[in-house]
């Protein structure tokens, strides 16, 4: 024990645990881009439009293409992110919930009423406003008749 104490201090032990890098050398997206993608997936779930694993992988591929990020060859060939990428993404970002959407329950179907539809409409209008698409919103609302 004395030999171990003379060779290792508490500071050296604590410091060795904090060496882990924030990003892996083969990681496609930066930590900030992954956080942005994770936040988007969370907001989709909040708006009752959760994405499946396939949809999430397609979204990641599109996100990489639009942002001119260097992607692996198999992403280009298949037009979708790899399953390995998704597994690693979910390990690094514990917040998003990716799963197959469930069928609508009887209680949920009964909850489809005017206040709920109005709230959804307000959320949709905010999304259009956020992306400067209010003209499209006005056209969409005029189509209701």
Mean pLDDT: 77
Low-confidence stretches: 16-21
Structural class of the helices, strands and pairings? mainly alpha
Basic shape: extended
Report the radius of gyration as a whole number of Å.
23 Å
- The number of domains is 2
Alpha carbon gap, first and last residue = 83 Å
- In terms of DSSP E residues, the strand content is under 5%
Give the SSE order as H and E letters. Answer: HHHHHHHHH
Largest sheet, described in full? none
What is the number of helices? Answer: 9
Number of beta strands = 0
Helix content: 55-70%
Protein name: HTH CENPB-type domain-containing protein
Structure description:
It is a single chain. This protein is mainly alpha-helical and 145 residues long. The chain has two domains: 24-99, no CATH class; 107-144. It has helices spanning 2-7, 10-17, 31-46, 53-66, 73-78, 83-92, 106-110, 114-130, 134-142.
List keywords for this structure.
145 residues; mainly alpha; 2 domains; 0% strand
Summarize the structure.
By secondary structure, the chain is mainly α. Helix content is 63%, strand content 0%. It has helices spanning 2-7, 10-17, 31-46, 53-66, 73-78, 83-92, 106-110, 114-130, 134-142.
Write the layout of secondary structure elements.
Blueprint: H1 2-7, H2 10-17, H3 31-46, H4 53-66, H5 73-78, H6 83-92, H7 106-110, H8 114-130, H9 134-142
